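Rotation project, supervised by the postdoc (A.L.). Task for the rotation student: set up a whole-complex structure prediction and record inputs and outputs verbatim in this book. Inputs entered:
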Amino acid sequence: MTAVLPISAEPTALATEEARPGRWRRLPTKAKVGAVLLGLFILAGIIGPFVMPYDPSFQNPAPDLSLHAPYAAHLLGTTQSGQDVLSQMLEGIRLTLILAFLVGVVATVLSVIVGVTSAFLGGVWDEVLSLLTNVFLVIPALPLLIVLLGYLQDKGQAATILVLSFLSWPWGARVVRAQTLAIRNRDFIAAARETGEKTWRIITWEIVPNEVSLIAASFVNTVLYAIGASVALAFIGVTDLNSWSLGTVLYWAQSQQALQLGAWWWFVPPGLAVALIGTSLVLLNTGIDELGNPRLRDAASASKIAGRWLRPADPTPVLGEIGQRGRLGSFLHSFSRSSLLDETERSQAR
Amino acid sequence: MPFILRRLAFYAVAAWVALTVNFFIPRAMPGNAVQSVMAKFTNLQPAAYKALQALLGGGKNPGSIWSQYVSYLDNIVHFNFGTDVSQYPASVSSLLVQTIPWTIILVGTATVIAFLVGTALGIVAGWRHGGALDRVLPGLMFLQAIPYFFFALILVELLAIKAHVFPTGQGYDNGLIPGWHGDFISSAIYHSLLPALTIVLTSIAGWMLQMRNVMITTIGEDYVIAAQAKGLPSRRVVYTYAARNALLPQLQGFGLAIGFVISGALVMEIVFSYPGIGLLLLNAVTSNDYPLMQAIFLVITFAVLIANVVVDMIVVLADPRARTREATA
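Outputs recorded:
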């Protein structure tokens, strides 16, 4: 339960540095709506086990309770074997959130390690790590997950968490690496180096704190991905089918023909929960994006002058060091699709 | 070396990594996959046993890992994925050949349509930033967050079971014999409409949001402002100046997201019992048919890689920088 708590504090952590009251109000509306929506689901996950009316696995043998439509005693109806859908949902929200947040944490740590290492080592090592990142970005993850988990089928949720984490770091690693490269050559890093700070200290105290919003965005993205992937995996049946996650509820609904039997209350609520959790994360992420890129903000932050909407410009672009590559490094780099974008960046830096 | 050749080299590396990972997974995983398959499917012949060993490793005399690797690659190059164990004695490749066209035609067409429409809407939404299209953004984000298969369930419930507008599933009417005749083709198209609609509706929002954001950033560039200041008509500024340059990151995003879209579409096939790769994968998973699972992983990976090559070719066509730039190493 404690594992899911930090996220509810996230909006405050993401806001501007000054600890003034009212920073919540300065967050983009989208981020606020997303945070509140996500907060509701986290709350449901935390108090779920205490308020759920039945044991989610309990099969009520009463014949009229098989596939009963929602009514007072079963607010979301029952399954074919007389189980309470609401209890399954509450338990499912909890397990799905815990799983996704754990994957988010592990994958984000991995991506920060790979991204920062790659940017700091530079040269050939950087290019090798980037190549690896790009390769794992282009190989579709879901089929690979299915194969891996197919072999690990009876290992429970831990296997799902580990395998998902090991396949979801490339996105984060890419953005962290790019950002680290941009920060690495700024004056304050040079100053820290001149004063004799050790590299690991520079990384943990100067670089990573400056990437907090980026890392948070990548964390939210990974959690979003983990929810989608874990639900899809459970729906296919490659997971621990004895525990209740939103995906396993949907799996049983599908495999026991809920659709054909017209039992909409069996699959609509869990699916809607997945979609709403996903929406809250997308909203949160868009909000974070808008914090960093004023151009994307709502019209509210723009002013209308002479019939045209004008928006605050981007913060002054940082002149990142793009051209510092060794011969082998730049050879390897030229194979990536993003090598095309360098030209644009360089011409803008000039 | 031209851009496209360098990209091909990259995809070759990616393909090799996928093949190698696929080779080592059954050997590195706990338990003996061959034994468990043999125990489960008792009707297998000794020949199948040998083929399984070549694919999954194990057995009494496996030979060096290197020789296993070479014979594994040799098999893959000849499109020989061994005999299937759950539908013995059909070969895995014959099962793949039966199902691949269904998936490629459905998922390919629907994805391209969704990308084109989404990008077009994104151009408009980016240009008219703060306009009517921005007001539906939260709705689009909701659409984007819905898992494909759940959206499919809802569409089947509403349009097939309640309203009887579309069939509930399958690739074609039961009575028909597959072949190139009018009845079958029209039935196949009719059955593919609802799955295609699912893909288009759920993925369109993502392309649109992405294009909108790139457009907004591009519109702020100096050359777009200069074009407007010159008094060029809006159409020209939007399409020739802003959208054309915003397309490059959009295409890049397309290349990266295509694996994700295909994966989602595969899971969706299950809801429709659509006779494609996704349903085959489900059957492989439920029956622990490891050879089939691994072959499907390879096939999907190669499909994604080929799609990426196509995207890169379009990039080369659309972006003069990709044509003129030579490696500067």
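Student's summary: DSSP finds 14 helices and no strands in chain B.
Supervisor addendum: Residues 234-272 of chain B form the longest helix (39 residues).
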